[in-house]
Amino acid sequence: MAYLKIAEGCNRHCTYCILPKLRGKQRSRYPEDIVAEARSLISSGVKELILVAQDTTHYGSDLQPPVSLSQLLGEISELSDEIWIRVLYGHPESIDENVIRTIAEHRNICSYFDIPIQHASNRILKKMGRNYSSDDLRRLFDNIRASIPDVALRTTTIVGFPGEKDEDFKKILRFIKDICFDHLGVFTYSDAEDLPSHRIHHHIPEDVAMDRYNRLMSSQQEISSKNNRKHLHKIYDVLVEGTDKNNLFKGRTFFQAPEVDGMTQILSQQLQIGSFVRVRIEDTFEYDLAGKVV
């Protein structure tokens, strides 16, 4: 597995984020350079390429002539049928039909969308500098699922943002339950004096923010456990990544990104690290799966 950076910097103006100030405006790499690096990584034995940037789905809009993420994905997918390609850090405003269609049409591009929404209260989204509404998000996720029925959806949210009322928190809690994300990351708001959000009134006490964090994660725990049960007895390709002392190997399916999602435990005497194996899921947990090679 290797991370492949496709751009640096960000043109967004989220009030809680200092990255644009630190790294400047978006500067996309030329597609030929990215494809050349991808080809080299594949030649070295890498089985999964993970495309990253501060705003991956906005890739190429700053190039002359402009290049789209869908074009880049199409070129990388042609390099090998024996790899996975995954995209992280998409933005709700820059995911278009072409990106969705390209992911749907290519077997070696993981049907996996990582789209940090940050919140689902329109009032808080506006304070965050996020230029979309809760209804926009619902339409986006409905569209993705309609186009790719087996898609995995991941998102991240922030709780305890300045000015977040109980009614705002209830909206993000309701949204998470309605969408039933496969994976969810939750962060409590982190303040700093050089952030625009620092000047927003009514900062949330740390204990209140942590209570909201725990409530959201508790809800997601139930959702994840229920979502995982739909994989029981199904067979998936699993990328083997390691082992322990009990003849248990660990790996990931296409719907499990490294480091942030759950893993798949594989009972086997001997497997090659870095290889793909077919695994029947025989047990499910809150975040992880377990199975045997078929």
Quick overview of this protein structure:
The protein has 294 residues and is α/β, with parallel strands linked by helices. Helices cover 32% and strands 22% of the residues. It folds into two domains: 2-229, pyruvate-formate lyase- activating enzyme (Alpha-Beta Horseshoe); 235-293, Beta Barrel (OB fold (Dihydrolipoamide Acetyltransferase, E2P)), CATH 2.40.50.140.
Walk me through what this model shows.
With about 290 residues, the chain is an alpha/beta fold. It folds into two domains: about 1-230, pyruvate-formate lyase- activating enzyme, CATH 3.80.30; about 235-294, OB fold (Dihydrolipoamide Acetyltransferase, E2P) (Beta Barrel). The chain is about 30% helix and about 20% strand. The strands form four sheets. Strands 9-10-11-13-12 form a five-stranded mixed beta barrel. The chain has a three-stranded parallel β-sheet with strand order 1-4-5, with helices on one face. Strand 12 and strand 13 (about 290-294) form a beta hairpin. Helix 3 packs parallel to helix 4 and helix 7 (about 165-180) packs parallel to helix 8. The longest helix is centred in the last third of the chain and has 24 residues, at about 205-230. The chain starts with a strand and ends with a strand. The mean pLDDT is about 95.
